[in-house]
Amino acid sequence: MSAMEVGPSTPAAVEFLESEAGAVPELAAAYGELAQLYTSKLWHQLTSKLEEVVRLELFAAAGGSARLVALYEKFIADVEDKLNLLRLARIVVAIAERCTAPGEAIAFLDPMVAKMSEQKNPEQPTVFLQMHIAQLHLAAGEAGQCKELVEEALTKLGEMTEVDPSVSAAVYGAAAQLAKAKQDVAGFYKNALLHLAYTSVDALPVSTQRDFAVDLSLAALLGENVFNFAELIAHPVMRSLAGTSFAWLEELLHCFNRGDLQQYDELCYKYADQLNAQPALVQNERKLREKITILALMEIIFHLPADDRTIELTTIAEKTKLPLDGVEFLLMKTLSVHLIEGIIDQVEGTVRVSWVQPRVLLMPQIEELKGRLQGWKTKVHSALVTVEGESPELLGVA
C-alpha cells in the first residue's frame, strides 16, 4: 500500500493522484496532501492547496498543461461543487495559463463559463473567466471578440455590488490590453491605472511592474487629454524604474507635472538618445511641447490666490516663451479641454480664470497649499482683530 493508502474502496480521484505522484515523484508530497484533504473533506484547505499546486513551476515544463488539465478532469471536477466559485475560477485560469496556444486555453475555459453559469451567484466568477478568455482572443488576433466580451463585462461591473478586487482587476486589465492593441493611448492609461488600483503591485513580478511603469509613463505623456501626472508619479509601480534604463521617464513625468519648460529642454538634450529610441515620442514632439506649455500655464494659475486669478497675457507670454497670438491659442486650447474656465479680455490684455480643474497634488504642492492656508488664517485673524477693535458693539464685546 502506498503513502496515500490506496485500496479497493479508494475513490477514483485519489487513485488519480497516486498514479500521477508515481509518474512524477516531485508531485508526491503535494498530491499526497491533496488526497489527505480530500478524504478529510476539508474543502477550504483543499481549495488553498489547489491554488498553490496549479502554480508549481514544474508545470511550466513540456507537458505541464496536459497534466494540469488532467488534474482538473480527474480530480478537481469531482469536488468543484464543494469549492468557492471565484476561487475555482482562479484555479482554472491558472491551468489555462499553462496552455501553449490561445485556442487551446479558450477551448478549456469556455465550457467552464457555461458550467459556472448554472451555479448560484455566478456573475463574478463568470466575468473573471470571460476576461481571461477576452485576452486570449486578443492574443489570437481576434480583437472583435475581445471587444464584445470587455464591453459586456464593463456593463456588468457597473451593475454589481461588493465586487471582489480580482474581478475588477480582470475587467480593467482586459480593457487596458484592448485599448493598447487599438492604440487608444488615453483609454489604456485610464484602464491600466484602474487595473493597478485593484492589484497588489508587490505581488507582480518586477518585470511586469516595469512594463506597466514604462507603458503608463508613455501613455501619460502621449494621452490626448491626460494632464494630471501626480497620480502616476505617486504610484508604487513607478519604483520599478529606479536604476533601470527607463529611469529617465520618471524625471520627465516630474518635469511635466511642474510644467517646467526650461527643464524640459534640458532633459530633451540630456536624454536625446533615449527619446529618439521611442518612435511615438519622436512623432509627437509637437504635441508634447503643446502639453507641457499648457501645464506651464496651469502652474502659473496654481501659484495665484484663488480670489485673484487675473493674469496679464504678457506675463503668460514671458513664462511660456510664446508670442501673444500663441498665448491666445494656448488659452483657447486650455479652455477647450476644460482644464480652466474664464474670460479672455483682449482689450485689457488679460485673462480672468474663474475655475481650475482639480488636480492630484504631490507633497511639495501640498506644502505650498499649507503655507497659503496659514497665510489666509493670519489674514482672517488680523481682520477679526481690526473689526473687534473698531466695532465692539457689533460683536457684543464689552
| Poorly predicted segments | none
Q: What is the number of helical segments per DSSP (H or I, 4+ residues)?
A: 21
Give a quick account of the main beta sheet: strands, pairing sense, barrel closure: 3 strands, antiparallel
Strand neighbour order, sheet with most strands: 1-3-2
Average pLDDT works out at 90
| Class from secondary-structure proportions | mainly alpha
Give the C-alpha Rg: 29 Å
**How much strand content do the residues show?**
under 5%
Helix/strand order, N-terminal first: HHHHHHHHHHHHHHHHHEHHEEHH
Count of distinct strands: 3
**Straight-line distance between termini:** 100 Å
Shape: elongated
Please give the oligomerization state of what you see: single chain
Description:
The protein has 398 residues and is mainly alpha-helical. Helix content is 67%, strand content 4%. It has 21 helices and 3 strands. It has a 3-stranded antiparallel beta sheet. α1 (12-23) packs antiparallel against α4, α2 packs antiparallel against α3 and α5 packs parallel to α7 (123-139). The longest helix has 28 residues, at 363-390.
Which helices and strands appear, and what pairs or packs with what?
Layout: H1 12-23, H2 28-40, H3 43-53, H4 64-79, H5 85-96, H6 102-117, H7 123-139, H8 143-159, H9 165-181, H10 185-197, H11 206-222, H12 230-233, H13 247-258, H14 261-270, H15 272-276, H16 279-283, H17 285-302, E1 310-312, H18 313-320, H19 324-336, E2 340-345, E3 350-356, H20 363-390, H21 392-395
Antiparallel strand pairs: 1-3, 2-3
Helix pairs in contact: 1-2, 1-4, 2-3, 5-6, 5-7, 6-7, 7-8, 7-9, 8-9, 9-10, 10-11, 11-13, 13-14, 13-17, 17-19, 18-19
